[in-house]
């Protein structure tokens, strides 16, 4: 990605302390954006912001529980104050709680809905309010929501998670239509990442093995690779590069779209 393709832009990334979120924040910085790292993991989030700063990216940290509207308001205000604008939102924060449908926990399903659906919806809401012409930033922008290949395939033991990531896809398309019709100047897209060897991805493989759906963790990972035409797991950089593309002017006529970054697994 061109180091200047996002020069002068400011991004807020949720769940950016580690994993895919950290990779996306790093890639945005490499492309020239200033980046607000947000997460519930304050110490790790500050370390990630410091790492980006040491590599030449303008970066800062703001505490953000995406289910808390007041924290959204504070994080957006901090972004505008710190960097003088707000152009890009990456709704990355999410959780996955594995369960067979026959054993589904109401509390777990509600928790995933709160983080994955409500959290994403609040992010869109406050990005629109800041980015639209009458907002605190007022120059339009781009939103990329992180859905999942789980929204496009039937995979065992992730029914609740799949439902929430399908909801992210639907919200993306409705938000894109609203932003266009109302003249906000904001494009809204999502990506469907395949399984990556992050802490969350490896925990899913462990859970699949524990439920007896695979002989062991290696077999669980192997089954995903077997279903993936490109024959490997996703790397965080694969996902980050696709997200950055959707934020640049190269994607200027793309909105309301879902981009698979899954090696063909969802084909």
UniProtKB/TrEMBL annotation:
It comes from the Bacteria. GO terms for molecular function: oxidoreductase activity. Keywords: Oxidoreductase. The keyword Aminoacyl-tRNA synthetase does not apply. The keyword Oxidoreductase applies. It holds the Pfam family adh_short_C2. SUPFAM superfamilies: NAD(P)-binding Rossmann-fold domains. InterPro entries: NAD(P)-bd_dom_sf (IPR036291), Sc_DH/Rdtase_CS (IPR020904), SDR_fam (IPR002347). Gene3D superfamilies: NAD(P)-binding Rossmann-like Domain. PROSITE patterns: ADH_SHORT. Belongs to the short-chain dehydrogenases/reductases (SDR) family. This is Oxidoreductase.
């Amino acid at each position: 990605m061109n180091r200047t393709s996002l020069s002068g832009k400011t991004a807020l990334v949720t769940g950016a302390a580690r994993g895919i979120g950290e990779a996306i924040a790093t890639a945005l910085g490499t492309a020239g954006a200033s980046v607000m790292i947000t997460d519930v993991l304050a110490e790790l989030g500050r370390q990630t912001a410091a790492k980006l700063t040491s590599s030449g990216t303008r970066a800062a940290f703001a505490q953000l529980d995406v289910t808390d509207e007041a924290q959204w308001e504070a994080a957006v205000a901090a972004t505008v104050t710190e960097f003088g604008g707000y152009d890009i939102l990456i709704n990355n924060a999410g959780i996955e709680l594995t369960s067979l449908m026959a054993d589904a926990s109401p509390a777990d399903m509600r928790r995933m809905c709160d983080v994955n659906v409500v959290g994403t919806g609040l992010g869109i809401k406050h990005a629109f309010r800041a980015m639209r012409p009458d907002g605190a930033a007022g120059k339009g922008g781009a939103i990329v929501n992180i859905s999942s290949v789980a929204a496009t395939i039937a995979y065992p033991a992730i029914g609740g998670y799949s439902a929430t990531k399908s909801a992210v896809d639907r919200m993306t398309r409705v938000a894109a239509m609203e932003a266009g019709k109302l003249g906000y100047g904001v494009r809204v897209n999502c990506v469907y990442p395949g399984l990556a060897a992050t802490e969350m991805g490896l925990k899913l493989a462990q859970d699949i093995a524990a439920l007896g759906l695979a002989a062991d963790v290696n077999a669980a990972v192997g089954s995903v690779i077997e279903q993936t035409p490109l024959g490997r797991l996703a790397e965080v950089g694969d996902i980050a590069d696709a997200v950055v593309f959707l934020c640049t002017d190269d994607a200027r006529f793309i909105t309301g779209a879902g981009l698979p970054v899954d090696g063909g697994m969802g084909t």
